[in-house]
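so my prof wants the structure for this chain in the tokens format not the other one, which i didnt know existed until like an hour ago. anyway here's the sequence
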Amino acid sequence: MNTTLRREYHISDMRSLSTAIALSLALTSAAAAAQVTTVDEGAFTITRGGTKPTDRIGQESFTIRRTKGPGGDVVVANATVTFDTEHLAPALRTDTSFSPLAYQVEVRTGTDVERLRGRIGGGRFSAQLKNAKGESSKEYIVSDGALILDDDIFHQYYFLVQRARGGSATIPVVIPRRNTQETMRIQTGANEQVRVGTTSVEARHYTIQEPTGATRQVWADAQGRILKVQLDASGITATRDELPR
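here's what i got, hopefully its the right format
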């Protein structure tokens, strides 16, 4: 084969290889995308005492996704929650029954940073806490079917609603940053009108009762996606900025 033919052969061969690689990458990306389903994503405006601009105290942006894995599907929820002096970044991974597998949250207050990492297994919650004072560990017993509902984080009510849809439920709830578990009673109520942005929509009303007797009100759409949360004791309300897509 002369030099010209060899050169043309190599160029043609490289073009074929490049095309094959590009096609392989495209198929891999498409397959990866097919493995992830967005369950819900959006943002909440957090207020205290009313709906005027001066009542606003924070904002939460979140995503909840379902991912296929070799050991079965998992649900992954991430968020950023911003208040005047505090910033939270929680990340929760659960199985398809919404029982937590792993949880972590970073809390920034001014220049101070606190990180909590926890895992649930064998009926225990094992947590490692790291902050300016050092590192510490804590482990405590949790009930079967316990869910995670951390303070000041609102998209996590989605998991309670999924457990109670169509009825009522008594749910053990782990509150990681308090190192405690509480049993909460969630009652499904009637459909009501809720304003989201400039739109009034029908939503299912749920009432959650804490062991102390304090109540929380939650409104969700037909798929259980959270539209509004109201903490009666503190007067704090988180309202969805836009309707779920």
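also thought this was worth mentioning. The helical segments are 3-34, 157-164.
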